[in-house]
Write a structure and sequence with these properties.
It is a single chain. It contains no helices and eleven strands. Strands 2, 4, 5, 6, 9, 10 and 11 form a seven-stranded mixed sheet that branches. Strands 1-3-8-7 form a four-stranded antiparallel sheet, with no helix packed on it. The protein is mainly β.
């Protein structure tokens, strides 16, 4: 199983980004997938998750600004980030096959988002 995130990037406060995570090795349509982030000196924490039925949940800090979505035909997960602030600067990781917010079995390599 391999998860590959697209490039994150550098953006000004108030800006937007969108990146993706494509899975290979198995079909992810039945599984929960999610995005997590880790800022320097902090623990990794959940940002947004989506279950096999397409029901999404969000961390309070991003609700209303970020949108998680999935395209099962492409085996791809997306994260749209709007109204970015410097506090969103972190490494973002894609994860698949977990239990909503925990116990994910597969992880991507991470993509850096810098808001400055």
């Amino acid at each position: 199983v391999q998860l590959v995130e697209s490039w994150g990037g550098l953006v000004r406060p108030g800006g937007s980004l969108r990146f993706s995570c494509t899975a290979s090795g198995y079909r992810t349509s039945r599984y929960c997938m999610g995005w997590f982030h880790q800022a320097p000196g902090k623990e990794r924490e959940g940002v947004a998750v989506i279950d096999g039925d397409g029901i999404a949940s969000y961390a309070d800090s991003v609700r209303g600004r970020f949108t998680i979505s999935r395209d099962n035909a492409k085996n791809t997960l997306y994260l749209q980030l709007n109204s970015l602030s410097t506090e969103d600067t972190a490494m973002y990781y894609c994860a698949a096959n977990g239990d909503i917010w925990s116990e994910y079995k597969s992880w991507g390599q991470g993509t850096q988002v810098t808001v400055s």
